[in-house]
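User: structure tokens for this one?
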Amino acid sequence: MPLSKQLSSVAGGIVALGKFDALHIGHRELAVQAAKAGTPFLLSFTGMGEVLGWEPRAPVVAKCDRERVLSSWSACCGEVTPTELEIEFSKVRNLTPRQFVEKLSKELGVRGVVAGKNYRFGYRAAGDASELSRLCEEYGIESYIINPVMDKKQSILNRGFNDAKERGQVSSTRVRYALSEGDMKYVSELLGRQHRLILMLNDQQSFTIDRSRISFPKSRLLNLPPKEGVYEDCRIVFGNDDVVACRVVVETTDIRLELVEIDRVYDPNDSRHLNIEFGA
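Assistant:
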């Protein structure tokens, strides 16, 4: 959708603020609270990595799969699917907290915002949730500050998370950590769903089929896989509800699918994408 239409559509809506990389249960709670107050939107910033000089990395959720995930939240959001509003990070990076709220009020015309208690915003993250509430009141915007969703797996708090921003809440960083450990049960707990891996199918040379095995190069991946290893109780998903049970083997350069039902035939030519869900 063109930016002009996005901006006009968000007017009068309730905008959830945050980084929505993983679309995890903490992000879902922001959307739920926004839906309770009005029409829910998720405000995302594009090009943040390029501007800040971050190393390129695969997303947790493939871009082509985000609409499906957001649609699954509608049952929690009053049967309304939250809409993503994307703004170029370069255009807001240097805004002070006041200028950012002014943009929400005057340029976007939002009626309210939802943010977590630990939310920081504005240039160099100068503003906190308290300042957000104060500025929103000044500009006539409703503000809803909610407690973060906490990670129930407290045992990992003492390892791998030295960042001061990590205070035990569910985060995209924790999802990436769980994937790097190959702990798919933990990944599912953080996401509130099974992790879906998406592969792009361009031509027959992008895969090989040997009886009950299908292999793909990792270069076809559109999002982040778990660490190398064997994963049981997985499934190939195509269409709305047709599935093929499989075992997934993640190797250094390839992804191999071993079909559980050998008599069941799956033809990768049926789709542009191959969807693989990991059992917990």
